[in-house]
Structures are given as C-alpha cells and as structure tokens.
Amino acid sequence: MRIAVTGASGQLGKALQRALSGVHEVVPLSHADLDLERPDCVQRLAATGAQCVIHPAAYTNVDGCARDPDRAYRVNALGTRYVALACQLLDAPLVYISTNEVFDGTATAPYLEYDRPAPINPYGYSKWAGEQAVRELLHRFYIVRVAWLFGGERNFVRTVLRLARERNQIAMVADEIGSPTCAPDAAEAIARLIETSCYGTYHLVNEGSCSRYEFAAATLRLAGRDDVALQPITLAEYPRASKVPPYTPLRNFAAADLGIRLRPWEEALAEYVEGVLKVEG
Per residue in 5-39, is it b (16+ CB within 10 Å) or e — as a string? Predict the structure, then answer.
C-alpha cells in the first residue's frame, strides 16, 4: 500500500517509517508538509493519493495543552477531523493514534478498549475529541491508544538518563501508574494490525505496568547508575499545569485476540537502554 504517515519526524512517526518500509510505499509528512491547524491540510493530505493514513501527529505537550487548551483542541481534535475528511476523499482507512489520558485514572484494573473515556485534562479531552471525529466521519478506521512512549531521542527514559548525569539525587512520582510502551514495538504492532482489516479500537502497549518511580528505577539500574539516589514523591508534591490521571494502565485485549501482542515493557526497556548507552559511549 501507499501509506501516508503524519508526524513523520516524531518518535512514533520515525518508528512507523522503519516498520513499514520495504513492504509498503511510505509518504512521510512532517509539520512543514501538513499543518493540522489549517483546513487546507485536507487537500494537502488528499493529494498524496494514500491508500491508508496513519496519524500520530499531535500536540503532545500535556502541560502546554493545559496552558493553551484552544490550541490542543485545534490540533488534536479539529486537526484529526481534517485528516478524517481527507481519508473520506481518498476512500482510505485511517489509523488514529490516541492515548491513555482519555481515561480519568480512577479504575482499579487496567482499562479495556471499550471502557468509558472520561478525560480530566485538556490534552486527554482533545485526543478523545479526535477519537469522536474519526468515529463520526469514517467507517474504516483503527483507533490505537498508546501510553508513555519511549524508543526515540526525546522521552522519559532519556530524561532520566540526562538527570542522572547532572545530579546525584532524582525525585520521581510513585503514585502515577501507566503502561510504558516502546515506539518501535507499537509501530510493528500497527504494521501487523493494518494487514487484518479488523477495524476498531485497540490498546497497543507493552505488557505490564509500573509507576513513574519504578520506570525510572529500572532505567537507572539498566544503565548501571545505582549511585544515583531515587526519591519517591507523590503527584501532589509535583506541581504541574495539567491534572494527571493517576492510574491508566491499558490492557491489550482486542489485538491480542488477533495474535498481536507486545513483549513486557522491561524487555523493551533493557534493549533500548543498551542501545542508548552504546551510542553515547
């Protein structure tokens, strides 16, 4: 297929290009190619002639979304609506990348694909609104929720490693629980999913869940930085512009039923940290 990938310069966008190339013709679209805040992106995207569109492009700065909710809505909700309208013109299925933050974090077990979203911050709301635009306008779509992505050049793991070089003590939140997800693993799963034509909502995350504190502790251990003291703190002690859903692990039920499973997050993290350390020397 000829597949257009929005957000091509982002962490997941780059991983998707690697996962799809060699089998499909990939049309990478960066912000310079496709400005989601402009209605003319409908025609720009339609002009690619894509037979499938994968849409990870988004305004993902959660605190930035809280400070400017109108921009979050324009990019993540209306921008996704424009992408869906382009898919109408192309008669092409859409893969919309959504997030764990569409949930409110009050659950006591990992969220399933059809649990009721109830976003509590502008980022989560804007992404949920994007989901609604896709469902409203298209019949052939995959809504893929991911969480806590790592695997590229800018992410939580890289931040922890940078802080370890700069400080001998790091504070991390111990009461925010989620599903770390390796971007290349998610990209490979998406590549498999689009071959099925089993449209619908999916949670493509690595198996297992942890707190931010546990995620950071595993990163430091794998990097051989046991000399850095890790201090657990609460969400209440870490002021942010955005309200954070405290418990949002996602359960991959629907894709697993198709045979699409992602490895445990600990395995993916170990491979990623090893690769980062080799590059950084």
Answer: bbbbebbbbbbbbebbeeebebbbbeeebbebeee
- 1 with 25: CB under 8 angstroms? yes
Determine the pLDDT at residue 146: 98
123 is catalytic: yes
The ranges of the chain with pLDDT < 50 are: none
Closest CA to 205 of 147, 258, 246: 147
How many CB atoms are located within 10 Å of the residue 57 CB? Answer: 27
Report the C-alpha gap between 237 and 257 in whole angstroms: 40
Q: Which two tokens stand for residue 47?
A: 């002009």
3-class secondary structure for the chain? CEEEEECCCCHHHHHHHHHHECCEEEEEECCCCCCCCCCCHHHHHHCCCCCEEEECCCCCCHHHHHHCHHHHHHHHHHHHHHHHHHHHHHCCCEEEEEEHHHCCCCCCCCECCCCCCCCCCHHHHHHHHHHHHHHHHCCCEEEEEECCEECCCCCHHHHHHHHHHHCCEEEEECCCEECCEEHHHHHHHHHHHCCCCCCEEEECCCECCEEHHHHHHHHHHHCCCCCCEEEEECHHHCCCCCCCCCECCECCCHHHHCCCCCCEHHHHHHHHHHHHHHHHC
Span between the terminal Cα atoms of the chain, in Å: 39
Q: For 246-263, how does the pLDDT look when each residue is reduced to its tens digit (9 = 90+)?
A: 999 999 999 999 999 999
User: Could you say which of 82, 96, 111, 123 is catalytic?
Assistant: 123
The distance of Cα 279 from the centroid of its chain, to the nearest Å, equals 24
pTM of the model: 0.96
Residue of 89, 1, 13 whose CA lies nearest to 45: 89
